[in-house]
C-alpha cells in the first residue's frame, strides 16, 4: 500500500510539473475563461457560476520566489490565463505585469462581518461588470449550486486526506502533503479528482499509528512557503503539523457550503466576510480574532512561525501574535529555514526539563 501511495504522489508531482500543457489543454477543451489567482481572495464558486475557472498561480511563479523562476518567464502565459488577479495591497504588482496577461487589482475591504460583506459584494460586482459586463443578480442559481458542489467535493477530498495523514503521518511526508495542496489549487479539479479519490481510498485503509500521540500538535505559520522540506524537519524534531497559516495551505480548503440553501450566494459571501486573508491584507487584531484566538480549542499546543524576510507586515504581526498566544497557553516560537530542526529540538528539551 505504501508503494501505491508513493506512486500516486509521483504522478501528482509529474502532472504539476506539466501545469502549462495541462491548463492549456483544459482551456481549449472547455472554452472557459481561466483566472489566475495570486492569493486566495475571491469567491471562486461565484466566479465559476459565470464560467470563470479560478486557479492559483504555481508557487514558483509567485513574486516571493522570483529568484528561482527566471527560466519560466519565457512561457506564453496568455495561452493559459485570461486574467491575473492580485489584491490591492500586494507589494509586487509590477512583477505580475511582466506576464503579459491582463491584470486586475482587486480591492479587499477592511474589517469583517456585515460591514465587510457589503463592501466585498460591491467589489465583486465591480469585477463582474468590468470583466463580463454582467451584474451579480444575473447569477444562475442552478449553475452556482453545481459549481459549489464541485468545490465542496474538492475540499472534502483534501481535508479528508489531511485528516487521515494526521492519524498516520509516517506514510506521507509533510512536504508531500503540501505539494498536494499546491497541485489541488493550481490544477483544474477535473484533472485532480482521480488522484485525490484514489489517495483517499488508499489512506482510508491504513491503521492509525500508535506514535502520533507523542508528537506536539502544531500549527506552522508563514506568508509563503519557499522550501517545503522545512516542514519535514519540523516534524522530524518532534512535532505533528495538523494546521497551517500559509498561502496555498489547508486554509484554502476550509469552506463547505450547503447547496440546498435558498440563499447560497449570500452564504458564500458571509463566509468570505470572516475569511483569514494574507497578513498584508488583514491586520493582526482581525487575524487573531478570526483564527488564532481559537487554536487552543482545536488542541493546538505550539505555533511555529517561519521567519519571512520578504513580508515585513507578517514579521510585525508575529511579534504581536506571540504575546497573545502565550496568554492562551499556546507556545509560539520563531524559526528560520536553516535552524528549524535545532530550534524545535531545543524548545522540546527545555519543555521536558521544566515538566520534570
Explain the overall architecture:
The protein is an alpha/beta fold and 356 residues long. It has three domains: 1-18 and 140-211, Substrate Binding Domain Of Dnak, Chain:A, Domain 2, CATH 1.20.1270; 32-138, Rossmann fold (3-Layer(aba) Sandwich), CATH 3.40.50.11890; 215-356, Rossmann fold (3-Layer(aba) Sandwich), CATH 3.40.50.11900. It is built from 13 helices and eight strands. The chain has a four-stranded parallel β-sheet with strand order 2-1-3-4. A four-stranded parallel β-sheet has the order 6-5-7-8, sandwiched between helices. Helix 9 (229-236) links the parallel strand 5 and strand 6. The mean pLDDT is 89.
The CATH class assignment of the largest domain is Alpha Beta
DSSP E strands, number = 8
Q: Which sequence of SSEs, written as H and E, runs from N to C?
A: HHEHEEHEHHHHEHEHHEHEH
Evaluate the radius of gyration.
20 Å
User: What global shape is seen?
Assistant: globular
Task: Report how far apart the termini are.
Answer: 41 Å
In the sheet with the most strands, the strands line up as 2-1-3-4
Q: How many separate helices?
A: 13
Average pLDDT number = 89
CATH topology of the largest domain: Rossmann fold
Task: Report the portion of residues in β strands.
Answer: 5-15%
Total separate domains = 3
Low-confidence stretches: none
Helical content class: 40-55%
What CATH architecture of the largest domain would you give?
A: 3-Layer(aba) Sandwich
Structural class, from secondary structure content? Answer: alpha/beta
Largest sheet: 4 strands, parallel
